[in-house]
Amino acid sequence: MLTVHNLTVNYKKQSILTQLDFSIEGSEVVGLVAPNGTGKTTLLKSLVGLLPRLDGTLTIDETIELANQREKYLKQIFFLESAQNLYPDLTVKQHLEMTKELWHSTILLSETLALFQIASFQDMKVRNLSLGMKQQLLLSLYCISDAHLLFFDEPLNGLDPTNTQLFNSFIKKLAKQNKAIIMSSHNLESVAALCTRVVFLHDGKLVELSDTSDSLQEKYNDLFGVPGGFDYEN
Ligand SMILES: Nc1ncnc2c1ncn2[C@@H]1O[C@H](COP(=O)(O)OP(=O)(O)OP(=O)(O)O)[C@@H](O)[C@H]1O
Prior knowledge:
With 234 residues, this protein is an alpha/beta fold. It has a domain at 1-76 and 148-154 and 181-186 and 195-224: P-loop containing nucleotide triphosphate hydrolases (Rossmann fold), CATH 3.40.50. It has eight helices and ten strands. It has helices at residues 40-47, 70-74, 92-102, 109-115, 131-145, 161-176, 188-194, 216-224, and strands spanning 2-11, 14-24, 29-33, 55-60, 64-65, 77-79, 149-153, 180-184, 197-202, 205-208. The strands form two sheets. A six-stranded mixed β-sheet has the order 6-7-8-3-9-10, sandwiched between helices. Strands 2-1-4-5 form a four-stranded antiparallel β-sheet. Helix 3 packs parallel to helix 5 (131-145). The radius of gyration is 18 Å and the shape is globular. The protein starts with a strand and ends in a 10-residue tail after the last helix. The structure holds adenosine-5'-triphosphate. Adenosine-5'-triphosphate is lined by residues 11, 16, 34, 36-42.
């Protein structure tokens, strides 16, 4: 579905992604894991053309290239970095209606309101929502977009256990609908439970976890662990 070739991103002199190659097909749920400040958000933003200077090729379905068919390419992907990208003066319902219209989606508003149980606050403005309520709305927008590729950046942020379970069911349903999903997360337990593949971002490249039966924590520690660990005794 999406093929990334030779993707290189630098911020001034800081190299973030280096000649990165990657692809994802429908029904895959790819977990993107790395320490803070490594480049997960940068990678997701670059996949949706949000970074002005970028080297490499991004192609959907082997023919639709970001560089020369930007609109067609972007119509396939839904990515909203965080709840900070919501409009404070619009209500929950207005966000849903706007997204439905922009994405020409046939998903029903009622279905989306039920998914994360947000009907009771559909008429509230975003500025009056709690952190978790904003996250419920953000995830509901993914649902109503009905896009083929869905990129989530820390989707579990601020979610209570019930909403975390609802999110897990939502992802499984999307995968069954042949959607391609990338989710960055620091929650290794959720990543292990939900993802069909796990990739670590390390030194500007993606390192694939070859054996999913390996403990994610062990692999994470191998790649990113603090040398020698912390010594609290001294
Ligand atoms: N607009 C920018 N200009 C300059 N440097 C930036 C910019 N955005 C991010 N960076 C730098 O790029 C690096 C990667 O940041 P990014 O937000 O992609 O990391 P992340 O892996 O998503 O982190 P976290 O897990 O903390 O969300 C960091 O060193 C950050 O300071």
